[in-house]
Amino acid sequence: MKKVTINTLRKMKQAGERISMLTAYDASFARLLDRSGIEILLVGDSLGMVVQGHDSTLPVTMDQMVYHCAAVSRATEHAHVVGDLPFGSYQASADEAVKNAMRLVSEGGAEAVKLEGGAEYAEVVRRIARAGVPVMGHIGLTPQSVHKLGGYVVQGRSEEKAQKLIADARALEDAGCYALILEMMPADLAAEITASVDIPVIGIGAGAGCDGQVLVCYDLLGMNPDFAPKFVKKYLDLAALIGGAVAKYRDEVKQGAFPGPEHSFSSSPEPQKHLPQLYSIPGKG
Ligand code: KIV
After folding, report:
1. Is 45 a pocket residue for ligand 1 (Cβ < 6 Å)?
2. Residue 184 sits in a domain of what CATH number?
3. 8 A C-beta contact, residue 82 and residue 42
4. I need a labelling partner for 211 at 20 to 30 A (CA). Which of 21, 200, 238, 255 fits?
């Protein structure tokens, strides 16, 4: 498989080929998603919720994003890796935004960064892009503004708000964004925005008229039985599978059935004296 770059994504839009994107937060998941042919892996600040257990993305720090980006990029060969700029890392000044975007690339191995916000962030986008870092925009429901928006609610339902989102998309493209995320908005509005810009547009809760789709990987795999929003399709019930496997392990430990002889070492020398490594490293034997 060839490495996916921003040029690949632009060509896919031009050819009408849909783009698949998922979040990834660690090396083990990144390796699996990458090998499945997903074009973009987003190290999203959604990790604050699904990995760290917060009720918003707001507490996520730059150091944490760098740490998770590095884990994902280490295990990714094919997909384009995007690192999310967390709350507080780009809002105060363009200088800080450039510095933090560069950290995601130089320390985290990301190939692009994503930030939330519309035309008001055009200058920040321009400055980061001028520093050589591709920027993905994110409009519609922007979770870092949850308090300003009054909750996680569908955006752009009034004509005025829809027009503002269309103008935001164009302003971000003009400022140098190479791609856009549209989150939680009416499908017809998302389709209109997608048709009105030349850059690839990826939707989440934004209908089928976008150039591609993104989901939080834990959501599509069904890791949380209590979370079933309208825009998510669960392709697997991983919560049930994990629960079943772990209960079986627990029972076998209690019955003394695990470890059996095949998982135990004897005192006499064996053909395989050393394991290549103690624990599984994504991508290695
Ligand atoms: O943080 C994230 O995972 C995101 C996606 C849901 C688009 O921003």
Report:
1. yes
2. 3.20.20.60
3. yes
4. 238
